[in-house]
Amino acid sequence: MQVFNLPHVPSLLLLQDIRRELNIEPFVQVDGTNTDEGVVKRAVVTEPCPRCRNPQLEYYTKQLRSADEGQTVFYECPKCKHKFSVNT
C-alpha cells in the first residue's frame, strides 16, 4: 500500500477530491453517470422486462452485503424504465 505524506492538504477530503488531485480515474462508473466523454453505458442482457416484455435489460452490480455473500444485480428496462434488483 502506498502512503502519501501531504502536509499541505486539509484533513477532511472527499474521495472525489483525492482522485482529482492525483489524476486517478474511478475504478467503476455505474448508474448512467455523466462524464466528460458523455453518459456511461450499462451492460445489456437479453432477458425480457417483467413489465413491458422488452427483450433487453440494462444492468449493473454492487456488493451490498458482506464479502462472503453474493452481489446484488440491478436491472432497468430502457423502454419503460422499470427497475428491480436480484440478490445472487
Automatic annotation (TrEMBL):
One of its GO terms (biological process) is termination of RNA polymerase I transcription. InterPro entries: Rpa12/Rpb9/Rpc10/TFS, Zn_ribbon_RPA12_C, Znf_TFIIS. PROSITE patterns: ZF_TFIIS_2. GO terms for cellular component: RNA polymerase I complex. GO terms for molecular function: DNA-directed RNA polymerase activity; nucleic acid binding; zinc ion binding. Residues 45-85 form the TFIIS-type domain. It is found in: Nucleus, Nucleolus. Keywords: DNA-directed RNA polymerase, Metal-binding, Nucleus, Transcription, Zinc, Zinc-finger. Pfam families: Zn_ribbon_TFIIS (PF01096). This is DNA-directed RNA polymerase I subunit RPA12. It comes from Tetracentron sinense (Spur-leaf).
